[in-house]
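Reopening this ticket.

The earlier resolution said the output was attached, but the attachment link was broken on my side. Pasting everything inline this time so it's all in one place.
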Amino acid sequence: MKLELERKSVWQIVDKKENDEIFAYGERYKNFLDSAKTERESCDFIIKKAIENGFISLEEAIKSEIKAGDKIYLNNKNKSAVLMIVGKDITEGMHIVGSHIDCPRLDLKQNPLYEDSEMAMFKTHYYGGIRKYQWPTIQLALHGFVVNSKGEKLNIIIGEDENDPIFYINDLLPHLGADQNKKTLAEGVTGESLNVIVGHSSFGIEDEKNPIKMSVLKYLNEKFGMIESDFQVAEFEIVPAAKARDVGFDRAMIAGHGHDDRICSYANLEAILEIKNPEITAVGLFVDKEEIGSVGNASMSAKFFENFVAEVLATRKNYSDILLRRAMAKSKVLSADVTAAIDPNHKEVMDDKNGAMSGFGVTMSKYTGARGKSGSNDANAEFIAELRDLFKENNVVWQTGELGKVDQGGGGTIAYILAEYGMEVVDMGTPMLSMHAPVELASKADAYMTKKAYKAFLG
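Inline output:
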């Protein structure tokens, strides 16, 4: 028996067959990233895959008594989803993997369009914990959903196709940046300056006051039937136009928008789609609004999952509230969210003895929170030991990690919300670099091991 902890990377452990699987998985994951750049698009992707794999809607399922082996989905507000495969007795608890499908980005304000200095612009309001200076001068795309004045529901994507225009946020030239250079990173670019260029030509427009703005409105009206007031009831997001791409000569990493947390969400999706007739009910949760505190009716704080379980149990003849409480309290959860990997360019903020390493597998974080574990779900040792044995049995390469040195900051996940029911919960996700940047970086090996861990746990 080895007394000392020995750490090896995934690349040093896997054989040729599994190495090939890592890269094949990476291709599928990149397709998801490119297909699902908003929470609505992610939810749509997840539901379509579920239906293709034999899942039926909750509304259809509750028409008769739900039994072991049934595969059920819930589409909640087109922004969050539940996938469940029913086990022998749901009142004995569930195995749940909970991920989120929202990502840091820029949202359009409700009255975004204006004209200034011979340019038409969109005003934005950033969503989640972005670093504002990272967003100017990169190529941007527009994704949105609108119910126009005709009552038509439209999904709009501009900037992703090679033949599309893209959008752009200006930054100061260095020749005039003397005052800006004196500011901190947080102050150098303000939220109100993240205004997106969407037009420049006034050709053929007779309006004397705002001809370029009118040109943009004319385009939107002709193409989508929109008028300016439709922005007030629409949801538009500004995201990087870049596709997910391989990084490095060995192509072993992926740069893409939305690794946090779609890297865990996709692993969650693939894992539950591969589960067959589990003894214990398997659940994949895909929720919204985690990046802004898990608020709102599509977030983990909403009761849609609890209501889902109640609907499933209510098809039984002996339904009572205590059965729901037992099902929730006896459940076990992997809170599927990313963590920070040690960055060779910024090692000073990490504890190299306890930080996660890229390529060393999926990461278990016993606690998150900030400084004195504030806001943390601190997982029980018994549950962690159980997972250790499960991962050993299933050849899952995993490591432990924490979000930086004790006094550097911190962060949280949805773990504490599910723990309120009495569930056993621990954070388990992919280590990554450049978290919350417009384009983030992650290892294909870690992405694959994340899926492998979730599958072992669910099934």
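Reporter confirms the inline version is readable. The first strand starts at residue 56 and ends at 57. The radius of gyration is 23 Å.
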